[in-house]
Write a structure and sequence with these properties.
mainly alpha; 64 helices; two-stranded antiparallel sheet
Length: 1455
């Protein structure tokens, strides 16, 4: 403090004394003290004697206080309250520099400190002296030395070791010193024995050492427990009194007396109770305390020279506490003993480096600290059934469990299983969060390599379980995401590489690029996982838009890990990963490898969905950075020099970046427009398309790839009708490329390494021209719409800037190139290389001629002549080539339908990450393999269909196509295989296979009406069409519509209707062909009329095929929005296409039971109306017609195409037919509906169908069959009118092999239907043996059978079928003498007695049936035969039961 300021303060305060200053001497301090005493000022700290609240009230006087020695000193600070003030939240943190920058000259530092330190009372409010009244006071030992003697650890011998843990040399010396001091101050052995024996005599005065020898089986710990006269746990230190030790000793004495009075069993019981009640951690603590005390006592024993016979001779009662403790501690002791043995066994010879005496502090070797230097033990060699933890090398390879690798490889460490080389996943996870940068980087790199090898299937045969699933469950995804935010470049790069290995499969991308130029290959399914478990049932009635909005809201409210659990990409987008990747690309500017990995990750994210593409486009500066840095128009020319090693990819054109932009454009037409206009991709397209790849200043391979991706991006834009204005600007460039395409033949002959890349570039060019041609073909249509609707205010689509005359000159170049390549078809290697280009040639010609035929400026005659010339000069010679015949033969080996394993999921597939399972490549004989004929034959069939669609006269020219044996064999095999499982790895392949099948069927449809020889193929093609309908995937709604419209209900594909099929059905019914029982058809409760035969029903159904088709098309109207989008894609209306991403795949478009769809739809409508409270009193006419047409179509299929319905379980078919009875009142009584339902029932009651009937298995589209059956029973009670047909449907599920709950529901809750269930035995189509065999074993049901029979609720005249069933089961039960439970035995004897006592006229008949039942007999009026008299065994049993009852009841009767 300045002197002026201090003087001023002294003048103001008067007698205020100054404070000492730094630098003042001792004399100055004494002077200040004298001044303070002379002034008699009050001190800053005052010592007072405050009353203890525990000993008295606050208001007590000094006279009432206890003496000074019993109280505590309390230091009080002036003006500080006893109660602590409430702590308010601290002020926000501010800059230290800012707070210290402004100070006033007259400001007192002490006052400033006091103003900031507002809560000093939390520390200095009350200081209480520690209670030392119970602490023993020891006087210092006098010595003759002037100062205490110094202690040096070299003076103490360290032979004495305390404890079993590892201790340093210094700790061992100090422990030895303390042990020596205790030994010096301890009483003599005799005194120790006397002290120990006295309390024991007090406890047991009658016993002595000589009278009670120690039992031989008594454990040492048990003896120690009862001979210890000091407590092991309780010390009494916390009592705070001088008699605390005596109190603890008294408690210990009571415990010992209690234990002596208890038996061994009581001790064990009490021990179990305590162990069950106490916390396990507390039990472990008590055991550890016991072990320490026992160890110290044993050490004291060893130091004494007295013999141990005295302790062994003490009397110990029989108990088991010590034994049980020793069992629980034996494992620990054994491990400690092994460790000590290991230490003792270790010598200098075990050390790789021998210690020398010259080394400092190595005169005493601590072997336990040098154990890590020993050689590792050899790994376990024996193979065991128990799995071992997987360990991996730094390259990500799995190390065998018995591999003995050298230590210099760096794969051994000091973790678990130190003898085994490699790192486990758990250890790698631990290292990935290390503080050491190198460890984090290495762990992430190794994890990335492991993931990559796992996805390739390298561990499938070696490891149990999925590595990817294990890693994702352990949080691997967010470990990478956190590491991505690391500030260290190496860690960041490693996490990017691991994330790329987790998400991206480069082989998947390769095959997607391979199929880009196939027919409709530009469109692809989104990489969205099918998470059906996340969808709730309550959303069923919502529209598609509402569902997507609800799902988006749910995902926004969910935590990131929950979203990533079922969709990894969506979870990453929630973490804003695109912003972090943008930062890395823009600011960090990593090495080229990291840049490529990031671009691959972004490409995979863009394939996820249109929403993901929008988020990438909306990310600030992400697309700008990629376009500016990796698709520049100018770059350093030294990049193209051979051997140039790129240190940075920034500022250099990159094909991977162009591919990312192309995939991003596939997300939607709006995204493409933004890329072309906002991000200036048009100028980039012109830059990389106008210049030949050889002239680009890039490596040759990269230049060709970049040019290829530029053409593909342009093709995607042209697919939306965009960027077609560039076509006129670049027309010379495109023509020059078309003229140079024949030169590819020479490069293929020369085996140029760039030939495959050049062919891919050529196919991209043709694909671009195809979409430009499609767009030009729509110009006239759009101009007509614009002119006709010019007065309307609605938004009109402007015509594209390219017209038909701009593209009409391309066809000669394409056709010339096609002819030249087809000349090489016999050269296998050349043809295999050029086949992709040939495929695009075919597709282009098909598109060109379809569009050409619709142009008003084109002369139709000229177009037809061109088609005739193309057919005669190109296509017909091609179809006669042997190579084409071999291609048809390869259809079946390469088919995904015929070979389901070819498109099965990979070994490491997880549901949350979409993968096409192409890792490692596909075999050549695969649908997407190098030898696959599917792309070329699909393009060929597309061209043939386009030609025959325009020129009907050429249909007969292509009749040979359907006659190829390979094609017929493939079609026959494909439709007979079961329905394929729809997965991401199969959907994209099956879609291309379905294209080929559709074009075969379309060609067959045209030939059916013109070629007289076609009828032999009609049945096969109809079966293929029906199978295809239930398999087509979302996005192919146009194909499904065409199949329904032209193929499925086409009478030409049902030749049986014209060639005696109905008559054959009637003849089969007459002769009962294919059945072992009569095909009985139940009658009707309606007015009796002559029932038509099955042949008449089939004939009528065949004639109604046109109206049946209309019925089904009207019921699929809910697919209309999807149909419009699909038609735009397949018909080439590019201006209507919204996205190249197909709809999400959750299954086929139509369900497998689509033939029953109208019936199910009507049932749902009626059920929903009744649920809302509406009552349907009358049925509209169209309802009756709809049900009739539905039943007619199912009858046709069940009779003539039965195999096409094999994928639908028989139980599901019956459940669908039950909807006839559940849909509106008395609908089933309509004559036609009744007849068709009865005809179908007779088919489903055939022996083969009954054998396959399984009502206990889950049925598709049905939550619970039991609930449906209960509804059927309630409907039967209400509106059945005793209809026999309805009754048969009620009786069918009651067969013995089905659930007993169905029978219990009839005989327990709905017994009223037994009066109306009058199905005659002669009309019942199911053999009764299926109801009576095996005998019933459910006691509750047997009692219900017996009760309904005895109470006459079940009579033969009312319900003959169930009467026979109940009589058969009760008879079998009451005469059964098999061993069973006491309850069942009593029940069957009681039933037998009650049956014997039946005397009524009606009951006498029942009594006769129950006692004399013999066998089932369908010809008998009652349905079974009777014994004339009981067999001797049954008679004897009956007499025994009756006599026993009489004896039991005799005393009662006498009394």
């Amino acid at each position: 403090m300045p002197s002026k300021c201090r003087a001023g303060l002294q003048e103001q305060e008067g007698r205020m004394l100054s404070r000492p200053k730094p630098g003042e001497s001792e004399a100055d301090l004494i002077h200040f003290q004298n001044q303070f005493l002379a002034a008699r000022a009050s001190p800053a700290v005052k010592i007072v004697k405050k009353a203890d609240k525990r000993k008295g009230e606050e208001g007590s006087t000094d006279s009432e206080r206890p003496p000074l020695q019993d109280s505590k000193d309390v230091v009080m600070l002036d003006d500080f309250p006893d109660i602590l003030p409430a702590l308010t939240p601290g002020p926000p943190k501010k800059s230290k520099i800012k707070s210290a920058s402004v100070h006033f000259e007259d400001e007192d530092p002490e006052e400033r400190l006091e103003s900031h330190d507002r809560h000093v009372t939390a520390v200095f409010s009350k200081i209480i002296e520690r209670d030392t009244s119970a602490v023993a006071v020891t006087m210092p030992v006098p010595t003759g030395d002037p100062f205490p003697r110094t202690f040096h650890r070299s003076e103490i011998k360290s032979e004495v070791k305390v404890g079993s843990g590892r201790k340093s040399i210094f700790a061992q010396k100090m422990a030895a010193r303390r042990a020596a001091e205790k030994e010096a101050t301890a009483p003599s052995a005799a005194e120790c024995v006397q002290i120990r024996s006295t309390p024991r005599d007090a406890l047991d005065p009658e016993g002595s050492a000589e009278e009670a020898p120690r039992p031989g089986n008594r454990d040492d710990k048990a003896d120690d427990f009862f001979t210890t006269q000091r407590p092991c746990i309780i010390t009494g230190e916390g009592l705070g009194s001088q008699k605390s030790e005596q109190e603890a000793q008294a408690i210990h004495k009571e415990n010992l007396e209690k234990l002596q009075s208890m038996s061994q069993e009581e001790i064990l019981q009490e021990q179990e109770k305590l162990l069950a009640q106490l916390d396990p951690s507390l039990v472990a603590f008590l055991k550890s305390r016991r072990g320490v005390n026992v160890g110290q006592k044993n050490e004291l024993k060893k130091e004494q020279n007295r013999p141990e016979e005295f302790v062994e001779s003490l009397t110990v009662p029989q108990h088991g506490v010590g034994a049980s403790l020793s069992i629980q501690e034996s494992g620990l002791e054994e491990s400690v003993r092994k460790e000590e043995n290991m230490k003792m066994e270790m010598t200098d010879d075990d050390l790789p480096v021998k210690p020398k005496k010259e080394w400092i502090h190595m005169d005493n070797v601590e072997f336990e600290k040098l154990e890590w230097m020993k050689d590792l033990p050899s790994p376990r060699q024996k193979k065991t059934k128990k799995g071992m933890q997987a360990r991996f090398s730094l390259k990500g390879d799995l190390i065998p469990a018995d591999a003995d690798l050298p230590t210099h490889l760096g794969l051994h460490h000091h973790g678990e299983e130190a003898e085994r080389a490699g790192y486990s996943l758990q250890e790698l996870f631990h290292l990935s969060r290390s503080q050491v940068i190198q460890q984090r980087t290495l762990a992430l790199q190794v994890l990335g390599r492991i993931v990559q090898k796992a996805r390739a299937g390298e561990f499938a045969s070696s490891l149990k379980g999925s590595i990817l699933r294990l890693l994702l469950d352990a949080g691997f995804l967010f470990l990478l995401r956190f590491s991505l935010d690391d500030a260290v470049d190496n860690v960041m790069a490693a996490s990017v590489g691991a994330l790329r290995a987790l998400l991206v499969s480069l082989d998947d991308e390769k095959y997607l690029d391979w199929t880009f130029s196939w027919y409709q290959g530009m469109a692809a399914f989104p990489f969205v996982p099918n998470n059906e478990e996340e969808e709730e049932e309550e959303e069923e009635e919502l529209t598609g838009t509402e569902k997507s909005q609800n799902k988006k809201l749910k995902d926004e409210n969910k935590p990131d890990p929950d979203v990533a659990r079922y969709d990894v990409v969506k979870g990453l987008l929630k973490t804003r990963i695109q912003h972090r990747l943008r930062y890395i690309l823009e600011v960090v500017r990593p090495v080229p490898t990291v840049v490529l990995d990031i671009l691959h990750i972004l490409t995979h994210i863009a394939r996820h969905s249109s929403e993901a593409c929008s988020q990438l486009l909306d990310c600030p500066r992400l697309i700008d950075t990629i376009v500016r840095e990796f698709i520049p128009t100018q770059w350093d020319p030294h990049v193209a020099e051979p051997g140039c090693l790129l240190t940075s990819l920034h500022g250099v054109a990159c094909s991977t970046a162009m591919k990312f932009i192309r995939v991003l454009a596939s997300g939607g037409r709006n995204a493409t427009a933004r890329l072309l206009n906002k991000f200036e991709m048009k100028s980039r397209l012109i830059r990389f398309i106008a210049e030949d790849p050889q002239d680009l200043l890039l490596p040759k391979e990269e230049a060709i790839r970049l040019s290829t991706e530029a053409f593909r991006l342009w093709a995607v834009a042209a697919g939306y009708g965009q960027a077609c204005d560039l076509y006129r600007d670049l027309y010379p460039v495109l023509v020059r490329i078309l003229q140079s395409l024949p030169e590819l033949l020479s490069s293929c002959h020369e085996k140029n390494p760039m030939r495959e890349l050049s062919v891919q570039r050529a196919t991209a060019v043709i694909t671009l021209l195809m979409h430009v041609t499609q767009t030009a073909g729509c110009t006239v249509e759009l101009q007509a719409k614009l002119s006709s609707n010019s007065s309307e205010a609605s938004e009109q689509i402007p015509p594209p800037p390219v017209a038909w005359n701009h593209v009409s000159g391309l066809q000669p170049f394409i056709e010339t190139g096609l002819k030249k390549i087809l000349q090489e078809i016999s050269q296998t290697e050349t043809w295999q290389t050029l086949q992709p280009l040939t495929t695009t040639y075919m597709i282009y010609l098909g598109v060109y001629y379809r569009a050409c035929s619709q142009q008003p400026s084109v002369n139709p005659v000229d177009c037809l002549e061109e088609l005739e010339r193309l057919t005669s000069e190109v296509l017909q010679p091609l179809l006669s080539q042997p190579a084409i015949r071999s291609m048809w033969d390869l259809l079946r080996p390469c088919s995904a339908l015929c070979n389901p394993l070819s498109c099965s999921l990979g070994p490491e597939s997880v549901l949350s990450i979409i993968s096409l399972s192409c890792t490692g490549g596909k075999p050549s004989l695969n649908l997407v393999g190098s030898k696959s004929p599917f792309p070329f034959l699909t393009a060929l069939l597309f061209l043939i269909n386009s030609i025959t669609h325009i020129h009907k006269g050429l249909i007969s020219k292509y009749s040979s196509v359907l006659s190829f044996g390979g094609l017929k064999d493939y079609l026959h095999q494909s439709w007979q295989t079961g329905p394929p499982s729809v997965t991401p790895s199969s959907a994209w392949m099956l879609r291309h296979e379905y294209h080929l099948q559709y074009f075969v069927l379309a060609l067959a449809k045209r030939m059916a009406g013109t070629c007289p020889d076609y009828r032999q193929h009609a049945s096969l093609h109809h079966c293929v069409a029906l199978a295809l309908l239930s398999r087509l995937l979302p996005g192919s709604e146009h194909l499904a519509y065409e199949v329904l419209l032209d193929l499925a209900f086409n009478p030409e594909f049902l030749p049986e209707g014209k060639t005696g099929g109905p008559e054959a059905a009637d003849f089969s019914d007459i002769l009962h062909l294919g059945t072992s029982a009569k095909l009985a058809q139940p009658g009707s409760a309606a007015a009796a009329s002559s029932k038509p035969t099955r042949g008449a029903l089939l004939k009528e159904s065949y004639q109604n095929l046109p109206v049946i088709r209309s019925c089904y098309l009207s019921h699929f109207v809910h697919l209309q929005p999807a149909l419009v989008h699909s038609q735009a894609s397949y018909e080439g209306r590019n201006y209507l296409i919204q996205s190249m991403l197909l709809p999400e795949v959750k299954g086929p478009i139509l369900p497998s039971d689509w033939p029953f769809f109208p019936l199910i739809s009507l049932y749902n409508k009626v059920t929903n109306a009744e649920t809302r409270g509406a009552v349907l009193n009358s049925l509209p006419l169209d309802l009756v017609n709809t049900v009739t047409w539905n039943l007619q179509w199912v009858l046709l299929l069940e009779t003539w195409r039965a195999k096409t319905l094999q994928s639908i379980p028989t139980a599901a078919k019956l459940a669908r037919l039950m909807c006839v009875f559940l849909t509106g009142g008395d609908l089933f009584l309509e004559a036609l509906i009744h007849c068709y339902t009865a005809a179908l029932l007779s088919i489903y009651c055939q022996p083969k169908a009954l054998d396959s009937l399984n009502l206990d298995a889950p049925l598709p589209g049905l939550a619970s069959f039991h609930d449906l059956y209960i509804s059927l029973l309630e409907q039967f009670e209400g509106v059945s009118f005793g209809d026999p047909l309805f009754g048969v449907f009620v009786l069918l599920p009651l067969q013995k092999r089905f659930s007993v709950h169905l029978r219990l529901s009839v005989f327990g809750e709905h017994t009223s239907i037994l009066r109306a269930l009058g199905v005659p035995l002669q009309q019942f189509p199911v053999p009764l043996e299926r109801y009576t065999s095996p005998p019933e074993d459910n006691l509750n049901l047997l009692r219900l059978y017996f009760r309904t029979l005895v109470t006459s609720a079940l009579r033969h005249t009312w319900c003959p079928v169930l009467y026979v069933v109940a009589v058969a089961h009760v008879n079998s039960f009451i005469f059964s003498q098999d061993s069973t439970t006491q309850e069942a035995d009593a029940a069957r004897k009681s039933m037998l007695r009650k049956t014997w006592l039946l005397v009524d006229e009606v009951q006498s008949t029942l009594k006769k049936h129950l006692l004399y039942y013999r066998l089932l007999n369908a010809e008998s009026p009652v349905g079974f035969d009777l014994y004339e008299q009981l067999p001797p065994m049954r008679l004897k049993y009956l007499q025994t039961v009756i006599q026993k009852e009489n004896k039991e009841n005799a005393p009662v009767l006498v009394s």
